[in-house]
Amino acid sequence: MAFALTAASATADPGTIASKEAEAQSVMGQIQQLDSSLERAIEAYNLATVKLNRIKHNLSENTVALTSARKSLRHAKVQLANRLVDIYTSGDSNAGLAVLLGAESLDDMLGRLDASERVSQQDTLVLRQVARFRREVQHRQQFLKHAHAEQVQVVAERNAARA
Length: 163
Prior knowledge:
about 160 residues; mainly alpha; Helix Hairpins; 4 helices; about 95% helix; disordered N terminus
């Protein structure tokens, strides 16, 4: 009887076996495609995570730098305001003439002119600092705005890759 069953299974329809083998090959191909697709999704997710971490780091650094630039700008503005108050309250609208007329000797005049020049250079430096700090604050604000927008985009990409 066992011989009869073995003979019967050996004589089974070869078309059925071939179709089952073809079906198995098709399923294996689909599994390989899904595996490849999963690998690409994992890579996209990991890349988005790396980008997000880089953006977070840049945001943190630039937030600190922006705070520092704002503080420096406030300090430079205070210096400038104090200098303007000094100039206004001194009542000396023609400082160069006062230096010349108030000097008691040539050495005194040269010393006064040198001091006046240094004050003028300091005023110019403070004005330049105010302008530079203002530009830096504006630049960092733009950078942070752009980085935040990029962060939103990367988070969306990461969520899509996860899904």
